[in-house]
Amino acid sequence: MKLIFKPKLLVAAIATVSFFEMSGAQAAITYLGMGSLGGGSTDMRDLSGLNNALENGVANNLLGSFGSGFAYSGVANRFLAVADRGPNAVPYNSAVDDTASYIDRFHEIDLSITQTGSSWNITPTLVKTTLLSSATPLVGSASIDNPNKTYFTGLSSGFDATKLSANPTNMRLDPEAIRVGSSGKTVFITDEYGPNLKEFDRASGQLIRTIALPAKFAVATPNAQGKLEETNTAGRVDNKGMEGLAVSPDGKTLFGIMQSPLLQDNALTSTGSKNGKDIRIVKVDIATGATQEFVYQLADKSLTVSEILAVNDHEFLIDERDGKGGVSVKNIYKIDITGATDVSGIASLPASGLPAGVVAVNKSATPFLDFTAKTGLGAAIPEKIEGMAFGPTLANGLMSLILTNDNDFNTNPATFSTTNNFYVFSIDQADLNYTPQAVDAPAPVPLPAALMLFVSGLTSLGGLVARRCKKV
């Protein structure tokens, strides 16, 4: 049965809504607080069952970086979070391949948001970890527990150099965003390496299909050393591929957004500095793979985009930020793609401005949410606010919005972002015209069952990985 989860609708005067739409004024949003999981001195482990050390000495089951992408399951307090490509060597050196044979994965988390008087308690609980794999032996990742099964790896060298990096036989995968399919049984994950979109079975983590993007998004000559990929003249910038993903309320359409402009869209100067402001949003028909492209314009060329979240079938929230910790730029803008020009046929976008006749998406004049100002966290703000999802209706009848950070597997308490954090806000429905995604609702995996699975089913996998998973 198709279940549609909708927060309690709150009636607002038409004049108020009209004023908000015209002015772009910040919505009536309240910061409720933060919950944390992993990182720092806790050095938590995930539920993958992997117990080997990676080439850089980091544990393969270190719980981290899963704020890179965050999605609501549509059921109770269950969310999904995807870790990116794994822990790099410290300090990271882009002149060599400093990535590791980390097996890509996503986690399921129960996020309890309860109210006690005027205070809110936000408690995340890790429920399940799912490794991402393919049933077909593919390039770049050694088979681990099944001769007909390979695992996706964070290794930047895990590709077939004779093919475009968007080729579906590519086993290197840098997940950056995740959304749940309308069946509730599949997940869509972006691959920043490709870039492309992949659909996986939610229960097993097995690849169902790869949705290729138009060729303009891929670099013609991939390289394990990211900076060397920038010798290409077209395609995504190194480490700045498809960063965000949204799914339409009817579940039929995906909207992916690049982290920065493409190389051919004047992303960089001749010396490699940031230059362009025009970022492409890609609209993808899930059934056919047909695409359209729209332009989103950054507030400043020094910024990037980390996430896109559907408000309804034509309006979205965009996470635009710098890469600094502490008091910094972390803004959420509201956009409307109605009337935006399809730029699929435009080969190159200028460093600033737009080609003649092109209309960009309509972006609110001021941020919908200024994270730095609203939270008041000051020096405690992490560098990377990257995940964003609406959640269930709160006890006060308002809708919830959760933002997460990517801590980059950091366990050094002397630096920013040692924990994976969940920042919870409440929003008046009248400020958004929100339409939730319709999702079939498989029963969530209960915590005891997940723990039993960890102990009895996956522990043996770790030993096999230690013996057979190697850098390629």
For the biggest sheet, the summary is: 5 strands, antiparallel
Q: What's the mean pLDDT score?
A: 83
What is the helix fraction of residues, given as a range? under 10%
Strand content: 25-35%
Query: Which value, in Å, is the CA radius of gyration?
Result: 21 Å
- State the end-to-end CA separation: 45 Å
Total beta strands: 25
Poorly predicted runs are: 1-26, 139-148, 161-169, 448-472
Helical segment count: 4
SSE order? EHEEEEEEEEEEEHEEEEEEEEEHEEEEH
Q: Which oligomeric state applies?
A: single chain
Based on CA inertia axes, which overall geometry fits? globular
Strand-pairing-aware structural class: mainly beta
Integer tally of domains: 1
Looking at this protein, list some descriptive labels.
globular; disordered C terminus; 9% helix; 472 residues; mainly beta; 4 helices; five-stranded antiparallel sheet
Quick description:
The chain is mainly beta and about 475 residues long.
Description:
The chain has one domain. It is globular, with a radius of gyration of 21 Å. Strands 17, 18, 19, 20 and 21 form a 5-stranded antiparallel β-sheet that branches. The longest helix is centred in the C-terminal third of the chain and has 22 residues. It is mainly beta and 472 residues long.
